[in-house]
Amino acid sequence: MSTMTLPDTDTRPENTEQTSDDQPEVFHYVSKDKIAESAVMGSHVVALCGAVFPVTKSAKPGSPVCPDCKEIYESLPPGGGDE
After folding, report:
1. Secondary structure class of 63 (helix, strand, coil)
2. E strands, the chain, where?
3. Is the pTM value of this prediction over 0.70?
C-alpha cells in the first residue's frame, strides 16, 4: 500500500458517489487528517476538485479516481513527507 504526500497535506482517494449507469464508484483525493474525523463523526471533507462529502469507504488499489482530483494532484509540486 502506498501513501501519497503533498506539501502540508496528505491525501488519499475516498468514495463520494455511485453513478446511475453502472459505472464504478469514483474516489477523490482528500486531506488525510480529515479522513478519520469524517469517518467517525460524519463530518464532510473537501476533495481537491471541490467535491464535499462524508467519508464512507476507503479506495482499494485499482479503484477509479476522480479525473479532476488526479489532474490537480499531479500538477502539484512534489511534497516533503512527514518522515
Report:
1. coil
2. 4-6, 9-17, 26-31, 44-46, 52-54
3. no
